[in-house]
Amino acid sequence: MTRPSDPARAALVRLVRDEGRRVLATLVRVTGDLQLAEDAVQDATVRALEAWPRTGVPPEPRAWLTLAARRRAIDLLRRESARTGKEAEAVSLLDRGDSEDAPEVLRDDMLRLIFTCCHPSLSFPTRVALALRTLCGLSTVEVGRALLVPEATMTKRLTRAKEKIRTTAIPYRVPADHELPDRLLGVAAVVYLLFNEGYSATAGEDPLRPALVEEAVRLARLLHEVMPGEPSVLGLLALMLLQDSRREARHGPDGQPVLLAEQDRRRWRRDLIAEGVVLVGAGLRRCPDRPDPYVVQAAIAACHALAPTWEETDWTAVLSWYAALLSVHDTPVVRLNRAVAVGELRGDLAGLAELDVIPGLEGYPLWHAARAELLLRLKRAGEARTAFAAALALPQNGVQHAHLSRRLDAAASA
341 burial class (0-12, 13-18, 19+ CB within 10 angstroms)? Predict the structure, then answer.
């Protein structure tokens, strides 16, 4: 068989990567060893990428990967000259190969992996890095770039985290009810990071990774089943559903991004919007005294989802929600999004003034792009070209880069 074309190869890599995450979760549950599970899954994915172009993708890719990873894990464990009782038990479980790979169990396995990554004994940056590496499937280089940390530093951080999980015997299980509050915010952040990587990929030629979006939504629904009354969970699920409702309208036939103001709202999924709005209402009723960040962000998303057109968006309500959000979650990115809303309500000059006083976003391409668009609307084409060029110089996915290049050309001809 001939070597697959680059698009076919890329699709195969995505399939192996996305299925491998679930296989990893199962192996960690069985072996109780994150490093062992990662080594076994890595070996299985390499074998798949070597074999499948010749033999074709099997009918059940996950089952193929699971079997290959199990066998590799058994080999690795049996090579130990003096296995502990726990390791011997792991070999026994792996040898069994019973029905523990059913989809229902996998749901629990992935949730356990998230809770393991978000154990309160790990620092928050470490939790995020470990989750990006294990759940999103990003390389160590990509994780370091996303968190603005050198690769060598990130490698040490991940190694220390895995070692701490192993040596301190952090349990691989969904915690008891009384332990949930200490982990919920970390878990919610990880699930939303997973969603964001799928919703707007940070690298590569594909702007969307639908498998990650669907996995994040599935995990949020599972969290909602476990903790139905938690405002953060209600808000998280609502926010993701409202954002994902626009999926089909976010890119044109040529794959280029379509801005929110220009999207065909008839292509938005009204069922997801309706479900999201109900969840927002439930979340607001459960946090009357102190707003929850996810609930408030979902309320902002609902303002956009319910507006018949961009021009009919209730920008006064949007800014009011941003004020509430800043009171509990004041970040540069939140201020960036608020500045865009200020520009729509009070004019481009007011929006630009808000953008220009936000610190710490010089390395964030969307800040430069937002400034460039407002400068272009203010007919300050030279400054807009400089801002677009600054955005283009920063890491981003290929489609976004192409879009900014076209906008730079538009500024050049203005």
Answer: buried
237-240 own/partner pairs: CB under 8 Å, 24+ apart: 237/276, 237/279, 238/275, 238/276, 238/277, 238/279, 238/280, 238/283, 238/294, 238/295, 238/298, 238/301, 238/302, 239/192, 239/276, 239/294, 239/297, 239/298, 239/301, 240/192, 240/195, 240/213, 240/216
- Phi and psi at residue 340, in whole multiples of 5°? -60, -45
249, 252, 255, 260 alpha-carbon torsion, rounded to 10°: -50
Which residue, chain included where needed, has tokens 């069994």? 96
Please name the residue ranges forming H helices in 286-364: 293-306, 315-328, 332-346, 348-356
Query: What would the pLDDT profile of 31-87 be if each residue is shown by its tens digit?
Result: 877 788 889 999 999 999 999 998 899 999 999 999 999 999 888 887 765 555 555
> Which residue(s) pair with 251 in the sheet?
257
175 three-class SS: coil
Segments making up each domain of the chain, as ranges: 1-101, 102-227
Identify residue 54 by its one-letter amino acid code: R
pTM: 0.81
Q: What is the DSSP letter of 179?
A: G
Reported as a single tens digit per residue, the pLDDT across 183-216 is 888 889 889 988 988 888 766 667 788 888 998 9
